[in-house]
Amino acid sequence: MSYNLTDYFHMVADSVRTRSYVRAIRQTLNGGETVLDLGSGIGIFGLVALQAGAKEVYAVDPNPLGMIGRYLAEENGLAQRYQFFCADARKLELPEPVDVIVTDMRGVLPIYGNHFHIINDVRQRFLKKGGKIIPLCDRLYAAPVSSARLYRELHSPWGRHDFGLDLRLLRQISPVRWQAGRVTQRQLLGPPALLAEFRYDQNLPEGDIRCHASWELAKEGTLHGLTLWFDCQLTDTVSFSSAPGSRSRPRVYGSTFFPLAEPVKCEQGARIRLCLEARRHKD
C-alpha cells in the first residue's frame, strides 16, 4: 500500500502513537548511535532520533514522499546526519551496521503484508549484536462481540430488496469481510484471549499464521462476530493498546470487526472456539 501525504499527516497527528514512539526513542538513545528508520514515511522518528543524540540516521521507504524527511532535516539543521533511501528495504545496502532500528509498518493489526519478512531481513543484515529495535513486541488479542450496528454495516447490502431482488445468496457466497471499527467494552461477550505474541528482536513468522482461542461467554447475547486488536510494547516501560476502552488507544490502528455469516443467539456460559488463519500473500 502506498500512503499519500494526508495519510502521513494523520499518523503524525495521532498523539498516542507519535508521543509513545518519541518517548521510546528518547529513552533508548544515549548519544552517538547509528539509527535505521525502517518504513520512515516523512521521517519524523528519524529526526527525533537525531535530536536525541543519534550520530547518523538512515531512513528507508519505497514511497518518494519520504524525501520530505530530507527537507525537514534541512529545515532543522540536521541534514548532514540524515540520509534517505527511496527503496525496497530488502534491496538496501548501508555503509555500516546500526545500533537501533525504529519501525512501524503495521496496518490496523501487526500482521500486514510482508512487513514481518522485511523486518527479519533488515534486522539480520544491519542490526549490531546487542543492538535494539523499537518496538519490542506486539500482542494480538481477540474477543466475541455483540454489535448489530457493525454487523449491519457489512451485511445489510446483501439483505436489501431495493431493486425487487433477493440478494441473500450473495451473503452466503461472498468472502468474509472485515472492517476497522470502534468496538466498546460493553459490546464484548467474553474476556480478551491472547492469540499470538510477535517479538521484533527475534525471528517473526514469515509463512501462514494460525491462532486458536476459546471462550466461555460471560453473559447472554447475540454473537455478531469477533474483534481483534493488539497491545504494543515499544520498550520495557513505554507501551500503548488499541483494545476496546483503552485510554492509550491510537486512532490510526483502532480495532477490527470480523462478522459471522449469520448472528447467533448465545446463552451465558456458552462455549466458542476460534481458529484464525492469516495467509501470507507472496509478492
Label this structure with key terms.
283 residues; alpha/beta; Rossmann fold; Hnrnp arginine n-methyltransferase1; six-stranded antiparallel β-sheet; five-stranded parallel β-sheet
Describe the structure.
With 283 residues, the chain is α/β, with parallel strands linked by helices. It folds into 2 domains: 5-134, Rossmann fold; 138-278, Hnrnp arginine n-methyltransferase1 (Distorted Sandwich), CATH 2.70.160. 25% of the residues lie in helices and 32% in strands. The protein is built from 7 helices and 13 strands. The protein has helices at 5-13, 15-28, 44-51, 67-75, 115-126, 148-159, 168-173; strands at residues 34-38, 56-60, 82-85, 98-103, 127-134, 137-145, 179-181, 193-199, 209-216, 221-233, 239-241, 255-266, 271-278. Helix 4 (67-75) links the parallel strand 2 (56-60) and strand 3. The longest helix is centred in the N-terminal third of the chain and has 14 residues, at 15-28. The radius of gyration is 21 Å and the shape is elongated. The relative contact order is 0.16. The model has no long low-confidence stretch (mean pLDDT 90).
